[in-house]
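Troubleshooting log. The previous run stalled partway through. Resubmitting the same four chains, unchanged.
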Amino acid sequence: MQKTGYKTRQQDLLLSYLKEMQGKHFTAEDVRAHFEEKKISIGIATIYRQLEKLVNEGKIQKYFIDDHSAACFEYDGEKCNSAEKHFHLKCELCGRLIHLECEELEELGGHLKTEHGFVINPLRTVFYGVCTECLNKTK
Amino acid sequence: MQKTGYKTRQQDLLLSYLKEMQGKHFTAEDVRAHFEEKKISIGIATIYRQLEKLVNEGKIQKYFIDDHSAACFEYDGEKCNSAEKHFHLKCELCGRLIHLECEELEELGGHLKTEHGFVINPLRTVFYGVCTECLNKTK
DNA sequence: TTGCGTGCAAAGGTTTTGCATGGCA
DNA sequence: TGCCATGCAAAACCTTTGCACGCAA
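Second attempt completed without errors. Output:
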């Protein structure tokens, strides 16, 4: 399960970028531009491959915001890797990512499995909607 | 507000397809293939333009399921609120998109709202995980 | 007749892939 | 040294767009 792989300069660069961008979303192109600004060159293919690996490991998440535009990635920090029993809520208005731990919601997984034979993956599943703050604002 | 536009053969064909596919999801390519099978030719550009129009009118919904794959469309019929009563499950292994209607799941929206002040948007939310068939295969 | 709808092909943008090279262990 | 990671460019892919023509009203 634990594929170590080699440690590379590009990998480190990307990880440092993740920490810097923690809680914010970015595209593959954002990553490339960020390092180009610093006169550091990373191939876009490498960026895609590293990001894909991180997504598979559940370290970062991949979102599809609108239309056929570029995919957004987001790093949520250490806490997300340890706690597998929480879900993510993403506000469509303010873009905030909310971490939700809730017993009743945890039952959702059990229900889907026993009643529908579907094993949900909370690491990748994101509930889209509107958060409390934004609801109040629009009233 | 109500832009009538012209009535065309392609429009009628698409509408008949929608009725046939009511409650199921399909891609632009699915539409093209469906009519090709019947020896009816419709330009793919026309399909995209018609679908876009229908989305803007709120007649059909557009989903962004996966990676760089094609967008999914869905016609839920006359009743406007029906779309809010089902969710989508996406199998991470076989890629199948499953259409799930379940009363207990409908309560999820209510729970999120009353307990967490979050109004979920089922039109955009997709549960990722592994479906029954794939679970059995991997055993 | 007017001008929207259509079809074709080309363009557009994002992501993936093949292949030779570079670099970690 | 053995192999994975990288970089480049090309390919793949879905979708949009420009333009001339067709067709509804």
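Takeaways: Chain A has six helices and seven strands. The CA atoms of residues 34 and 40 of chain A lie 9 Å apart.
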